[in-house]
Amino acid sequence: MSIEILLPAMSPTMTEGNIAKWNFKEGDKVSAGDVVAEIETDKATMELETDEEGVLGKILVAEGAEGIAVGTLIAVILEDGEDASSLDGITATVAAPASEPPVMQSTEAAPVPEVTAPVAAVRVEADLPEGTTFTNMTVREALRDAMAEEMRLDPDVFVMGEEVAEYQGAYKVTQGLLQEFGDQRVIDTPITEHGFAGLGVGAAMAGLKPVVEFMTFNFAMQAIDQIINSAAKTNYMSGGQIRCPMVFRGPNGAASRVGAQHSQNYASWYAHVPGLIVVAPYSAADCKGLLKAAIKDPNPVIFLENEITYGYSFDVPDVEDYTVPLGKAKVVREGVDVTLVSYSIGVKFALDAAEKLAAEGIDAEVIDLRTIRPLDMDTIIESVKKTNRIVCVEEGWVTCSVSSEISACLMEDAFDYLDAPVMRVTNEDVPMPYAANLEKLTVVSDERIVAAAKQVCYKQGE
Amino acid sequence: MAKKPSPRTTKGGKPAARRKAVQKKAPEATPEDLIQYYKDMLMMRRFEEKAGQMYGMGLIGGFCHLYIGQEAVVTGIQAELKDGDSILTSYRDHAHMLACDIDPKVILAELTGRSTGISKGKGGSMHMFSVEHGFYGGHGIVGAQVPIGAGLGFAHKYRGTDNVSVVYFGDGAVNQGQVYESFNMARLWNLPVIFVIENNQYAMGTSLARASSEVELFRRGESFKIEGEAVDGMDVLAVREAASRAVAKCRAGEGPVLLEMKTYRYRGHSMSDPAKYRSKEEVSKMRAEFDPIDQVKNRILDNKIMTEDELKAIDKEIKAVVSEAADFATTSPEPDPSELYTDVLVAE
Ligand SMILES: Cc1ncc(C[n+]2csc(CCOP(=O)(O)OP(=O)(O)O)c2C)c(N)n1
To answer: In angstroms, what separates the C-alpha of A225 from chain B's closest C-alpha?
Structure first.
């Protein structure tokens, strides 16, 4: 029996990788523990060890191949006495996943069939000059470019956090910054969130402009006192004297199969606090433009990224010093029948749902909030005046959620325009389960949005 | 507040003597220094006595933490600081502000919650700031000022100045994780930070011994390779000596430094605390034998720098300043309601 080597997933969100190197040739003997290949992802390079012994019978995916889906058969090892001829006709095939694949997938290169590229849905800012060209880039690159540009523009801007410098960022968002700006401005911190967040606050009070990266916002729980009690309130308590021009940024939201402590959305937590600006963008263009605006802003900004979207690609305008205003939502798809409002990765689900609704004759308008605090209710109300129906979509808990806030504001300010109750489609109100099927049940899906939209349009079961 | 003694503030480049351990013999001071410290400390004392009275009259709201008894600490350290240095402390902050030359009027007006207060009446006793004077608060959360102080030191280093950051915190704060997180980063990056532990022996009602497994607080930086020194915090000259060494180190890029100031507060933790956790005798002994103001006063008298009457005249002047500040604080209007929503975010 030959032994199959499949491309392994080396992190919870990895969906594909590149074969950087084969360390053995066909016909070589391999033993357990040998590093047979080096696999490269957008985050890191990792070694692929075999735990079997035999002869490397066939290499099915050559060195240098890119965008290989996790689970693809990349090589076969022959066991003692096995004949190489038994391998004739075997090709690199994507193995059927053991269970349902995770709901969220990267959209790059797309060898995995169910992945849809969100690129098509992207609209650009209306006020871009005519003839503007675009560069397609990932969210990760857009964020990095935003920081690099601001660092070039302003020597007071510096980046600090765990692994941001030498390791190039746990999620590779700060890749290359150390090389360009040096270790005085790209600073690796110890694993002490409370302390380094507070240190950043002090540096900001002195007029520097720190960008504090949290490896994920889950760990910022240890720093929440400094964020809320120090960063958010000092301007007020000092009668406008002491500012905190800084950005706390990093991924948040559901990751994939990492369980309850590493998988949650913090938008409504921070949005609750006066004195903070809270940004949760979706597209790469917004990530770049909003992060640049956040760094320039004289206030403390919570910048909530989404790990799953880091690898998504979008068109980013080639505009010098491109910024997107904080506090402004964006209509990303126009429609007349129902408004779907969301933010961060929820926008993807809403856009997917809008496509499905379109196929059923329902023309949905999709709004990307982009900034959660201040909340751009004007844009939402404008849309509701047109559609008279709304579904709030959010990859977070429903209780005291952003959706709850929108719903309440609509009761107060747009009641007369509503033809149906406001509906909220959110994650289930449970800590994130680990099991693949339960996790899938927990997070928002386009099906649930479609069902809710039909409900507010009174078109169930049609 | 009157000018700081000039010889100290301009000492600049002169390398301070390198001495270890606790200061033994009484350090030297010029007559001008002594008079200045006497004035500075007396101002703090009279200011806070007035604040105490006004609190009793219901003119000051919320919590009001007095520094009475501890005046030598901030006075001695401040004597070694110069323009551009930053300091910050906890909620027990009135004296630190006076030491930064902040006008007593605007401090007291903040205590009464008036529009003329240093935070426009929106901060209160525990949350006061003055960028102009290098005073970065006034922090209500125990220990929160410590990493922030490290951050101010970080900024000095980032900008390549020789300024230092002095962060004061209590014996109750020393057991916090964020304090050690700050020690670690400060040493790792050699930040010009002076960590001043004001060990007044009680954190609210809990004595140091009941809360801390290691009560020699000057040793708390050891595992981070931060040199510590225990100092008689009731003697302004001993404090100044230690500060002089610490400041010189930090300005030379050899910081951080830790100073444990052995001090004592005469009043309760805040105005609402009857301080039943310690004996009357303990307090009166400290007052009678170690009072920081009396110690300076005695030096002035012993050395015949001034007479008893001259010192009384100083006291009278200070009382007049404080009482003028009290008038200001009670007659100023409350903030305009339109101030409610200002300064939540920086308006551009
Ligand atoms: C994080 C936090 N916990 C508790 C309190 C309540 N509290 C205020 S002051 C204090 C005692 C602190 O004592 P210490 O640090 O010795 O300072 P001192 O009051 O003696 O100057 C406590 C427990 C607080 N403000 N913040």
So the answer is: 8
d(CA A167, CA A309): 21
- Look at A229 and B144 and tell me if their CB atoms are within 8 Å: yes
Spell out the SS3 assignment of chain A: CCEEEECCCCCCCCCEEEEEEECCCCCCEECCCCEEEEEECCCCEEEEECCCCEEEEEECCCCCCCCEECCEEEEEEECCCCCHHHHCCCCCCECCCCCCCCCCCCCCCCCCCCCCCHHHHCCCCCCCCCCCCEEEEEHHHHHHHHHHHHHHHCCCEEEEECCCCCCCCCCCCCCCHHHHHCCCCEEECCCCHHHHHHHHHHHHHCCCEEEEECCCHHHHHHHHHHHHHHHHCHHHHCCCCCCCCCEEEEEEECCCCCCHHHCECCHHHHHCCCCCEEECCCCHHHHHHHHHHHHHCCCCEEEEEEHHHHHCEEEEECCCCCCCCCCCCEEEECCCCEEEEECCCHHHHHHHHHHHHHHCCCCEEEEECCEEECCCHHHHHHHHHHHCCEEEEECCCCCCCHHHHHHHHHHHHCHHHCCCCCEEEECCCCCCCCCHHHHHHHCCCHHHHHHHHHHHCCCCCC
Measured between beta carbons, which residues in chain B are less than 8 angstroms from residue A230?
A: 139, 141, 144, 148
- Please give the pLDDT value at position A1: 65
Low-confidence ranges of chain A (pLDDT < 70): 1, 10-12, 43, 95-126, 461-462
Q: Smallest Cβ distance to B119: which of A198, A238, A245?
A: A238
Point out the catalytic residue in the list A149, A150, A162, A193: A193
CB B212 within 8 A of CB B201: no
Question: Ligand 1 centroid to B138 CA: how many Å?
Answer: 13
* Residue B12 pLDDT grade (very low, low, confident, very high; cuts 50, 70, 90): very low
Each residue of B170-220: pLDDT tens digit? 999 999 999 999 999 999 999 999 999 999 999 998 999 999 999 999 999
Confidence of residue B348 (pLDDT cuts 50, 70, 90): low
Q: Which chain A residues are Cβ-neighbours of B144 within 8 angstroms?
A: 198, 225-226, 229-230
